[in-house]
Every structure is written in structure tokens, then in C-alpha cells.
């Protein structure tokens, strides 16, 4: 049993360390007519006739994670954790939570699994309305994203349960067992980690204006600065364990690459000191969008005259482009197309790992190089941006009450090198005034798999929000959570005079 655990650790260590000794969020904020430059991150056309003459984003930050495999299944509502009303039977003698292993439950449905963790900041940012219908904006955004995509369910279960050979077989309970003598080949997965910045300039203009119709267009070119990246792409690995002393590798194709991993030790370098950092990668990206607004005279008495539309519909292409790292990169591809290769878990293997993890990894590395064909000829990494196509709709039901909707479809394959933003569909009812706003984004997230309900609240220049908080507080199950906050303010446009309206 011990040798199998060492084998699993050593194989993963070889893949991860050879040659070496993170969603969309801010939904409530970006749908608001009072959010200035933030509207450009959903559709750059939206700021063409903004409610602000000048708008400045002081600081906006968000963090979150989600997955579709493991859930925390508490025997009590999550709200009890926040309020401190956890029943005593679930506490230790010291008063802390007595976490039980069975609270962490699997979603076993035969589908590939995904995980996403992100940290994002936006600062500084400014928007200025040059003239009525013509607006420009400038902002700097940072993103740190870690994703595991398209993990075959058997591999996810193997990582969850580990290896048990106590009864002469390598297995765990439930479906998708991994047993002695069986070839294990359903183990594809992709891992991506990226830290990058965007210097984005937006120009938006009203191109058609009639008594009832307004059509706007916007474009946001971006300079992309890549601070660090890494990826692992397992295209397929066939494994068979004939007994307790060896692992047989069949057809294998695994590739990975990375830049200096020490960068991730201090994430403040992308959020605070970005001007001092030397970018390891550079690239170009863009957002582009168009918006249609309809404002019939027959509904003037029920709509908000300050926003001046009954409904608004838009389409946008977001985060197109890529970042190329051409210096300080390491790429490796591990290939076996020449029959079965054996990794012996003999006394030499056990002795190396018995002398410590570092010695074990070095020994395993040397052995694996005799088994596989190793290609390190590539000297650059190109990471793709999380490109999406977005459809937006906003209906002014009555005065300050609106109902919005947003469909976001990812255009990135889960096997791509780079960050992929999961697709979602949301409906966002909201009450919107100059000084106060509240919105309830709700819908299907994580590629339309999981229902979510969030909350966005703004009081003056200060706002807080989440795309996934209310459902979590009322539920026992947690697949993920996110949270964002910020402070932004601006100078409103002058109220149109009666003569102007005429």
C-alpha cells in the first residue's frame, strides 16, 4: 500500500516539477446604469451616453472559487456558521467546529469535473464624457486565475479517495474503481494558472439617434502584460498496475510549461506594484460591442427619464486575444508511443523516497527519463484569453425598477492553454437610484449546471456584492462562493432642460 502511494506522488511530482528543483463576477455592478466605467467590462458600448460626465473607480476587488465535483454538505444551514448558532453536537469541547469527513460529498454523475479560483482587482479607472453620445475610458485590471478543467471523473475520484491496496487491489468504493490488472486510461485533464494585467482604453459613441431609437457602438483595445503562467495538459495516459511492485505505462502524451513560479509567492506584485514589475509576456486583446435602446413616447410616464429607455439589448465579444511568453519559459512534452514501459517499485525506489521527498523526486525523475521520450525544444508559451460572447437585455419595468438578463457563452475549449470563463445565464432584477441600489442576480452558472442567487448593494459610492451568496446562506450545500467590493464615484451629467427634451 505504501509503495502505491509513493508511486502516485512520484508520478505527479515528475509531471509537475520536471526541470525544476480563478469567473466571471461583478454581475450586479456591471449591469447598473450608475456604474460608470464598470459598464464597459460587460459591453463597451454602454458608456456612450453614461449617467456620469466624469467617473472614477477608486478600488474594486473580487475573489471567488467554484467547482462541480465536491460540495460541503453541512448538517445545518451555512447561516448558522456566520451567526455562531451551530448546534453543540457539531462542536468540539473547545467550541470550534468539529468537521466531519462525510460533510464533503461527491457529485458522481459520469461527467468531467472542473475547478476555478480567481482574484481580480480594478484600479485605477476613469471615464469621461467628451460630448453627448461620445465617451472615453481608461482602466487597469489585474487577474490571478487558477483552473482545473475537464478532469475525467475516475481521476477526480482517485485524487479524492487515494489508493487502497490493503485487500490486494487498488480500489475505492463506488463506481469507476481502479483495480489491479486493469488498464486505466480515462484520465484526461487540463490545469492552467495565469497572472496578468490589462491596460484598457475604451471609446464609445452613439451612431444612430431618433425619437425612439438609440444605437451605440464601443471598442476597447487592450495591452496585455503577462506576469506568470503555467499549464499541464494531459492528452492521455494509460496506466496498469499488474501487482504491488510495479506500474505499467502504455500510450502517454502529457505536456506542461511554466515561467518562474516564485512570482506567485507574493500576489501583491500584480495588484499593487504592477508598474515596477517586468512583464514576462506581452500581448494584445480587445472587447467590442453594440447596444440598441428603445424608448417609445407611449411609455414615458412609466420609465425612468434619466436613463431614457424602455428596454436595452446588447451584444459584445469580450476578452479576445492572447499573451505570448518568449523568455524565461520551460516547456516539456512526455511521450510514449513504443509499447508498455514499467516503473519498478523496488528497493531502490523505496530507499530513495525513504530519504525524503526531494531525493525521491530526483530518483523518480531519472527513472522516468529512461521510460519516456522527453521533448523540451519549445521555448515559448502562448496563453489564450477567456474569450466569451455575451448577450444582454435590460427592461425598465417601472421608474426605478428594472429586470436585466445576461447570457455569456465561452468560446474557449476546456483543453486550451489559457483561462476559460464558464458559461452562465442570469436574470437580474434591481432597484436603481442615484444614491441607493440593490440587485439580485440569479440563474445557472458553471456552464449552466448549478443554480445560483447573488446580491449587489450600493450606497452612494460604496458597493459590495456576490454572484453566489444568498443560495449559499440558505442552503446546506456549498459548491463555491465569491465576493467583491469597491468604491467608485463620479459627477453626474447635467439634467436636460425642457427645451433640450423638445
Structure summarized in a few sentences:
The protein is mainly beta.
Q: How helical, in percent, are the residues? A: 10-25%
Number of strands: 25
* Average pLDDT score: 82
Beta percentage is over 45%
Quaternary class: single chain
Domain tally? 1
Alpha-carbon distance between the two ends: 84 Å
Silhouette: globular
Structural class estimated from helices and strands? mainly beta
Radius of gyration: 26 Å
Number of helices: 9
Give the arrangement of secondary structure elements.
Elements: H1 2-17, H2 27-30, E1 52-67, E2 70-73, H3 78-83, E3 104-106, E4 113-131, E5 134-151, H4 153-161, E6 183-184, E7 189-209, E8 213-240, E9 246-258, H5 268-271, E10 281-294, E11 311-325, E12 330-336, E13 341-344, H6 347-354, H7 357-371, E14 373-375, E15 381-384, E16 388-398, E17 401-410, E18 424-432, E19 436-439, E20 442-445, E21 450-453, E22 455-459, E23 462-466, H8 470-474, E24 477-478, E25 480-492, H9 498-501
Antiparallel strand pairs: 1-4, 1-25, 2-3, 2-24, 4-5, 5-7, 6-8, 7-8, 8-9, 8-10, 9-12, 9-13, 10-11, 11-15, 11-16, 12-14, 16-17, 17-18, 18-19, 18-20, 19-22, 20-21, 22-23, 23-25
Amino acid at each position: 500500500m505504501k509503495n502505491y502511494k509513493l508511486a502516485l506522488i512520484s508520478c505527479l511530482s515528475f509531471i509537475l516539477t520536471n526541470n525544476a528543483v480563478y469567473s466571471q463576477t461583478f454581475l450586479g455592478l456591471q449591469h447598473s446604469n450608475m456604474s460608470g466605467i464598470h459598464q464597459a467590462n460587460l459591453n463597451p458600448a454602454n458608456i456612450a451616453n453614461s449617467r456620469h460626465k466624469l467617473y472614477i473607480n477608486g478600488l474594486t476587488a473580487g475573489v471567488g472559487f467554484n467547482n462541480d465535483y465536491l460540495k460541503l454538505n453541512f448538517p445545518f444551514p451555512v447561516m448558522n456558521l456566520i451567526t455562531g448558532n451551530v448546534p453543540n453536537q457539531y462542536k468540539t469541547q473547545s467550541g470550534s467546529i468539529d468537521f466531519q469527513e462525510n460533510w464533503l460529498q461527491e457529485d458522481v454523475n459520469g461527467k468531467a469535473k472542473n475547478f476555478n479560483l480567481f482574484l481580480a482587482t480594478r484600479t485605477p479607472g476613469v471615464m469621461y464624457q467628451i460630448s453627448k453620445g461620445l465617451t472615453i475610458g481608461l482602466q487597469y485590471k489585474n487577474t490571478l486565475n487558477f483552473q482545473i478543467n475537464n478532469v475525467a471523473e475516475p481521476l477526480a475520484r482517485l485524487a479524492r479517495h487515494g489508493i487502497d491496496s490493503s485487500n490486494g487491489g487498488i480500489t475505492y468504493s463506488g463506481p469507476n474503481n481502479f483495480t489491479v490488472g486493469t488498464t486505466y486510461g480515462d484520465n484526461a485533464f487540463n490545469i492552467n494558472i495565469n497572472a496578468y494585467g490589462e491596460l484598457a482604453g475604451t471609446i464609445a459613441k452613439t451612431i444612430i439617434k431618433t425619437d425612439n431609437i438609440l444605437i451605440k457602438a464601443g471598442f476597447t483595445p487592450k495591452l496585455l502584460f503577462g506576469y506568470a503562467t503555467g499549464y499541464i495538459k494531459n492528452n492521455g495516459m494509460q496506466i496498469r498496475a499488474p501487482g504491488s511492485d510495479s506500474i505499467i505505462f502504455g500510450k502517454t502524451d502529457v505536456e506542461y510549461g511554466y515561467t518562474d513560479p516564485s512570482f506567485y509567492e507574493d500576489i501583491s506584485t500584480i495588484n499593487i506594484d504592477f508598474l515596477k514589475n517586468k512583464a514576462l509576456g506581452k500581448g494584445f486583446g480587445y472587447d467590442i460591442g453594440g447596444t440598441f435602446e428603445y424608448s417609445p413616447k407611449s411609455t414615458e410616464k412609466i420609465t425612468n427619464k434619466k436613463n431614457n429607455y424602455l428596454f436595452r439589448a446588447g451584444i459584445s465579444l469580450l476578452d479576445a486575444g492572447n499573451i505570448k511568453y518568449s523568455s524565461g519559459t520551460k516547456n516539456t512534452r512526455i511521450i510514449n508511443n513504443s509499447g508498455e514501459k514499467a516503473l519498478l517499485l523496488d528497493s531502490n525506489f523505496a530507499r530513495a523516497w525513504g530519504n525524503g521527498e526531494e531525493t525521491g523526486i530526483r530518483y523518480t525523475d531519472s527513472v522516468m527519463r529512461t521510460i519516456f521520450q522527453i521533448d523540451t525544444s519549445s521555448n515559448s508559451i502562448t496563453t489564450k484569453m477567456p474569450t466569451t460572447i455575451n448577450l444582454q437585455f435590460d427592461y425598465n419595468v417601472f421608474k426605478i425598477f428594472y429586470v436585466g438578463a445576461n447570457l455569456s457563452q465561452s468560446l474557449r475549449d476546456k483543453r486550451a492553454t489559457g483561462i476559460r470563463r464558464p458559461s452562465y445565464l442570469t436574470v437580474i432584477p434591481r432597484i436603481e437610484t442615484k444614491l441607493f441600489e440593490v440587485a439580485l442576480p440569479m440563474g445557472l452558472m458553471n456552464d449552466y449546471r448549478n443554480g445560483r442567487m447573488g446580491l449587489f448593494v450600493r450606497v452612494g459610492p460604496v458597493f459590495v456584492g456576490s454572484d453566489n451568496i444568498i443560495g449559499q446562506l440558505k442552503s446546506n450545500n456549498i459548491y463555491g462562493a465569491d465576493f467583491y467590493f469597491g468604491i467608485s464615484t463620479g459627477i453626474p451629467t447635467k439634467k436636460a432642460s425642457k427645451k433640450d427634451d423638445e
